[in-house]
C-alpha cells in the first residue's frame, strides 16, 4: 500500500539501461532516496529479466500491465524520444539527453522531417538537460524551445567517467587484461548507415575508414609498441564491418556484450589512454579526463555536405589533430601519446565551454531538481464533485456546462455513501458529512484534480489554473480559506500534510501560492454588466471595487470561473 502512494519515476534509454538515465537511477539508489518508486521501461523480455535479476523494477513494452503501469508514472526520464506519444497531460517528461557534439540537427539543419519532429517534440517535452550555458543557447536554437525548459546541469553519466574502474570493466567485457599493454586506444566512430540514414561513407574492410589504408601497417605499429586498439562501432553498423580484421592487438567491443554485462561506454573511458573518433559526441565526455583525442576525417567534405556541423566551427568542435591516411594517423597518434601538452589548450577550452565548470557535481540535479519534483507535478484534468439528492436547475446547468466546456476532462461524481468515502470517514473518524473538506483532501491526494462546488459556473478551460501551480488554494476577503474550488496534483505533499495535521492553513515558512477570491472569480452580475454600452470606457471603475472593467474581462478570459454570491 505504501509503495502505491509514492511518486512514480519512470526511466528508459537507448540502448536499454544505459547513459544518463542509468546513471541517474543508480545515483538515486546509491543515495538511499526512498521517497519514490523507480520503474524501468525496456524493449524486450531478456533485458527485463536481466534488470529484475539485480532487483530493478522493470516492465517490458509488450507486457500486459505496461499501459497500466505507464499511466501511474508521474515523471518520465528519457534519452531520446521514447514514449512521447503516450505522454499524459499531467505527466512530466524530462530528456536527460544522449550526446553533445558538432552535428547539425533540428532547426540547424535543412531537413524538413527533422524540423517537423522538433516542432512536435518541443510541444510535448517539459525539460531538456544541457551541460552548460553555451549548450543551453545551442539547444534553444536547435529545438526552438524556450529557456525555462532547458535545465543547465552536469550530465549524470559524468560520474562514470570520473569514478568507474575503466580497466576492470574492459576486462569484464573483452577478457583482455589492459595491464599487459603499454597503451590502450579506443576508436568510436559515429554512425553513417542505419536507422534510416546514410551520411558520409564507410568501408567494411577498413577498420579505421582511412585513405591509403594498409592493415598490416596498423597491426605492425600496434604490436611493435604493445598498444591495444579497442574498436566500438555504433550498434547499427556492427554488421557492416568485416570481423575477420579483429585479432591480437585489435579487438571489437560489441554492443550486445555491453548490454549483457550492463556496462556502458562511459564506464570504460577512464581506462583509455587516447580516444580516436570522427564526428561522434563521445569525445565530449572523454575530454572530461583531459586526455588526448585524434580525429579521423577522411570523408569530412561528404559528411559536411550531407549532415553538416553546428555553427560551422570544425576547428572548435574537434580539439585535436585531424587525419585521413594511415601515415598521418600513426604520426599524430605517437605525438599525442608522447606529449601531453599537444592540443591541450584546445581541449581545455572546448571542455570548459561545452561541459561547463561544475561537470563533476552530478548530485546537483538531484538536490536542486529531483528532490523538489512534487512542486512541478501538474494538476490532472479531473473535475470532482459531490453528488446531491436534489440539484437546483442552476446546479444542473452548471454541471452540464462543465461537461461541455471541459470535454477532455474526466468528470467524477462522488457519492458520499460509496464504500471508498465510507473508508475515508472511518479512517479520519468523520461521523457525518458536515466536514467534507477532509474527504476532498483525501480524494485529491489520491487522484489529483479540482474539486468544484456545484454553484460554480465555468466559461473557459481551466488550463491556466492547472498549469500555474500544483495546488489551487483560495482565500476570501477576510483571509479565510474557501473550498468551493480546491485543486491539487496527485500525491501532493502539502495536501498530505494538511490531512495529517487536520488543519487547513499555511505555515509562515511554506512557499505556497494562494489566490484571492476577487482575483479569481467574477460574479454573475459582473458577467452581465461587462460588455454593456456604458462600460466601453476600459478604465472605468464599478461595483465598489478598485478593479477596472478591463481587469474583469481579463479574469473571465483567463480563468472563466463565476461564483454565486
Topology diagram in text:
Elements: E1 7-11, H1 19-30, E2 36-42, H2 45-53, E3 58-60, H3 66-72, E4 75-78, E5 92-95, H4 112-124, E6 127-130, H5 133-142, E7 150-152, H6 158-163, H7 166-174, E8 183-187, E9 193-194, E10 197-198, H8 215-225, E11 227-231, E12 250-252, H9 255-261, E13 274-277, H10 282-286, E14 293-296, H11 300-306, H12 314-317, E15 322-323, H13 326-338, H14 344-354, H15 363-368, E16 382-386, H16 393-405, E17 410-414, H17 419-427, H18 436-447, E18 449-452, E19 456-458, H19 463-468, E20 471-475, E21 481-488, H20 493-501, E22 515-516, H21 517-520, E23 521-522, H22 524-529, E24 541-542, E25 545-548, H23 549-558, E26 561-563
Parallel strand pairs: 1-2, 1-4, 2-3, 4-5, 5-6, 6-7, 8-11, 8-13, 11-12, 13-14, 14-15, 16-17, 16-18, 20-22, 23-26
Antiparallel strand pairs: 9-10, 18-21, 19-26, 20-21, 24-25
Written account of the structure:
With 565 residues, the protein is an alpha/beta fold. It is built from 23 helices and 26 strands. The longest helix has 13 residues, at 112-124.
Query: What's the architecture of the largest domain in CATH terms?
Result: 3-Layer(aba) Sandwich
What's the overall average pLDDT, rounded? 87
Helix content: 25-40%
Radius of gyration: 30 Å
CATH class of the largest domain: Alpha Beta
Q: Could you say how many structural domains there are in total?
A: 3
β-strand percent reads 15-25%
**Given the structure, what is the number of helices?**
23
- In the CATH hierarchy, the third-tier topology of the largest domain is known as Rossmann fold
Reported for the largest beta sheet, the result is:
7 strands, parallel
Question: Low-confidence spans: pLDDT under 50, at least 5 residues?
Answer: 194-200, 528-546
Structural class: alpha/beta
- Got a strand count? 26
In spatial order, strands of the major sheet run 3-2-1-4-5-6-7
- Shape assignment: elongated
**CA distance, first residue to last residue:** 42 Å
Amino acid at each position: 500500500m505504501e509503495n502505491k502512494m509514492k511518486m512514480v519515476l519512470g526511466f528508459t534509454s537507448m540502448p536499454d539501461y544505459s547513459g544518463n538515465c542509468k546513471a541517474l537511477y543508480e545515483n538515486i539508489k546509491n543515495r538511499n532516496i526512498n521517497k519514490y518508486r523507480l520503474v524501468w521501461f525496456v524493449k524486450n523480455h531478456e533485458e527485463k529479466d536481466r534488470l529484475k535479476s539485480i532487483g530493478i523494477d522493470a516492465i517490458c513494452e509488450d507486457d500486459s500491465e505496461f499501459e497500466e503501469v505507464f499511466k501511474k508514472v508521474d515523471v518520465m526520464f528519457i534519452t531520446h524520444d521514447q514514449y512521447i506519444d503516450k505522454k499524459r497531460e499531467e505527466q512530466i517528461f524530462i530528456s536527460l539527453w544522449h550526446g553533445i557534439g558538432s552535428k547539425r540537427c533540428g532547426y540547424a539543419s535543412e531537413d524538413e522531417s527533422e524540423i517537423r519532429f522538433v516542432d512536435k517534440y518541443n510541444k510535448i517535452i517539459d525539460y531538456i538537460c544541457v551541460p552548460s550555458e553555451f549548450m543551453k543557447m545551442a539547444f534553444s536554437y536547435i529545438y526552438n524551445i524556450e529557456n525555462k525548459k532547458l535545465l543547465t546541469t552536469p550530465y549524470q553519466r559524468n560520474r562514470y567517467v570520473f569514478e568507474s574502474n575503466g580497466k576492470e570493466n574492459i576486462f569484464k567485457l573483452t577478457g583482455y587484461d589492459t595491464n599487459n599493454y603499454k597503451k590502450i586506444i579506443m576508436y568510436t566512430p559515429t554512425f553513417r548507415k542505419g536507422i534510416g540514414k546514410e551520411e558520409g561513407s564507410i568501408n567494411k574492410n577498413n577498420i579505421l575508414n582511412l585513405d591509403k589504408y594498409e592493415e598490416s601497417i596498423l597491426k605492425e605499429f600496434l604490436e611493435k609498441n604493445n598498444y591495444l586498439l579497442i574498436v566500438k562501432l555504433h550498434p547499427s553498423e556492427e554488421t557492416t564491418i568485416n570481423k575477420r580484421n579483429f585479432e591480437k592487438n585489435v579487438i571489437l567491443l560489441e554492443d550486445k556484450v555491453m548490454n549483457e554485462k550492463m556496462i556502458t561506454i562511459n564506464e570504460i573511458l577512464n581506462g583509455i589512454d587516447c580516444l580516436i573518433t570522427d564526428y561522434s559526441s563521445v569525445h565530449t565526455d572523454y575530454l572530461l579526463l583531459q586526455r588526448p583525442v585524434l580525429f579521423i576525417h577522411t570523408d569530412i567534405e561528404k559528411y559536411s555536405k550531407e549532415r553538416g556541423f553546428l555553427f560551422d566551427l570544425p576547428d572548435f568542435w574537434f580539439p585535436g589533430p585531424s587525419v585521413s591516411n594511415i601515415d598521418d594517423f600513426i604520426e599524430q597518434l605517437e605525438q599525442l601519446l608522447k606529449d601531453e601538452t599537444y592540443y591541450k589548450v584546445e581541449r581545455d577550452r572546448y571542455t570548459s565551454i561545452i561541459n561547463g565548470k561544475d561537470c563533476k557535481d552530478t548530485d546537483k540535479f538531484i538536490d536542486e531538481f529531483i528532490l523538489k519534483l512534487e512542486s512541478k507535478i501538474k494538476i490532472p484534468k479531473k473535475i470532482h464533485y459531490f453528488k446531491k439528492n436534489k440539484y437546483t436547475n442552476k446546479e444542473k446547468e452548471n454541471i452540464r456546462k462543465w461537461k461541455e466546456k471541459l470535454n477532455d476532462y474526466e468528470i467524477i461524481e462522488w457519492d458520499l455513501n460509496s464504500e471508498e468515502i465510507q473508508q475515508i470517514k472511518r479512517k479520519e473518524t468523520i461521523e457525518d458529512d458536515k466536514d467534507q473538506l477532509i474527504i476532498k483532501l483525501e480524494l485529491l491526494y489520491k487522484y489529483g484534480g479540482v474539486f468544484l462546488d456545484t454553484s460554480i459556473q465555468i466559461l473557459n478551460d481551466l488550463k491556466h489554473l492547472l498549469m500555474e501551480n500544483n495546488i489551487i488554494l483560495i482565500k476570501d476577503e477576510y483571509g479565510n480559506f474557501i473550498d468551493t474550488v480546491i485543486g491539487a496534483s496527485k500525491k501532493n505533499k502539502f495536501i498530505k500534510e494538511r490531512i495529517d495535521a487536520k488543519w487547513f492553513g499555511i505555515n509562515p515558512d511554506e512557499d505556497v501560492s494562494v489566490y484571492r477570491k476577487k482575483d479569481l472569480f467574477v460574479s454573475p452580475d459582473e458577467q452581465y454588466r461587462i460588455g454593456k454600452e456604458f462600460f466601453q470606457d476600459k478604465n472605468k471603475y464599478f461595483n465598489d471595487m478598485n478593479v477596472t472593467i478591463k481587469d474583469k474581462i481579463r479574469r473571465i478570459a483567463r480563468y472563466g470561473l463565476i461564483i454565486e454570491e
